[in-house]
Each structure stands twice: as C-alpha cells, then as structure tokens.
Amino acid sequence: MNATERDKITAEIHDLTVTLTKQPHDISALLTLATDLIAVADFSQAQIVLAQVHQLAPEKIEVPYNQAIIAHQLKQDEQALRLLSPLLKTKLVGVASYLMAVIYFEQNQIQLANAFALTAAEQATAGLPEYLLLAQILTKQHLWTTAQPYAQKAYDLAQDDPDVLFVLGGCLINTPDQKSAGTQLLKRAAQLAPQKYQTAVAAIFPDN
C-alpha cells in the first residue's frame, strides 16, 4: 500500500467513526471500518469492531471471514482455517477458498493449495489475485500448460505486474515456440522488480 492509499483509508476511518457516533448500529459502516482497520494493520481495533458486529448481527458471515484474515496476518493459520472452513458453503466461497489456498501454499501443502485455488479461480467474481495464485501454484509443480491460461488471464488484467510477468514468462519459456516471448517477459519482470527477480532471471539466462 502506498502513502496515498493509506491516507485515503485513514480519512475513511475518520469519516466512518463520525458516522458511527451518530448511528452506532450501522452494520455496513461497522464492517467497512473493520476492513479499513485490517488494511492499515490495526488488528486489535478491527477485532473490537467485529465483535460489535457479531453482537448486533450474529448471522453476518463477513465477521468470521475478517477474523480469519486477521488470524492469518498474526500467523495463527490453524485458527484462520477453522474460521474459513464453514464459509465454503456460503456466498463467500470464493474469497474463503482463495485465503485457504494462500495459507496452504505458504505451508507448502501444494495439493490442498491447488484444490482451493482452483475453486477460487472458477468463481464468477475471480480476478487478478485468484488467477495469479493458481498460476503460481501450478508452475511450482511445473504444470506449465495447465498454468498458462490462468497466467494469461492475470496478464490481461495487469501487464506491468512483475509477479504476473514472471509466472507467464515461466510458462512460455517451457512451451515450444514460445521461448522468445517468455524470455522477454522474464527479463521485464527482473527490470520492474530487481530485488525480487533479478537473481532468478540471471540464473535462467546466465549469458545475459
């Protein structure tokens, strides 16, 4: 998050706080405030707000979802998974599956990560994060052909994202007749994010 985005969220937190002094039971405002507090990493305040929402509207499935995000940020992944699992049968199946895939990928449980990332990527609401994550999980297994369509979808949405360039480049250099295009994408990823990708790309193309 850049400074402009942070300032915008901070301003929104202030406005929501003002709104809630007049309408303390505004569920929508409370949930937005919790989301904003999570975005600026104020987890303790976010937890307090989510507890308020749970008291006012215990049926709101956004509460356990946001609590799972906080648990993941605090490295309490088992708790996060427990909170997310019941959400797989709700309208939040896409975002819950995505976060479960992230957790399992970080734990190197690749098959579980693969399954949940696929569920997330197949939702009608899927976008860049879902396509990129699934492509990354598939390329880790060297499933280049399977990964490429998802990497391509991610690229269509974000052609200057170094993570996208790296994963699609990896697919293409491992595909016959696509090596030149793959080389260009990998080198561009290294240019855009040298600290992250320069070493890896130099190892792939030692002569350059």
TrEMBL record:
InterPro entries: TPR-like_helical_dom_sf
Top-rank taxon, per record: Bacteria
Protein name per its UniProtKB record: Tetratricopeptide repeat protein
Organism: Lapidilactobacillus gannanensis
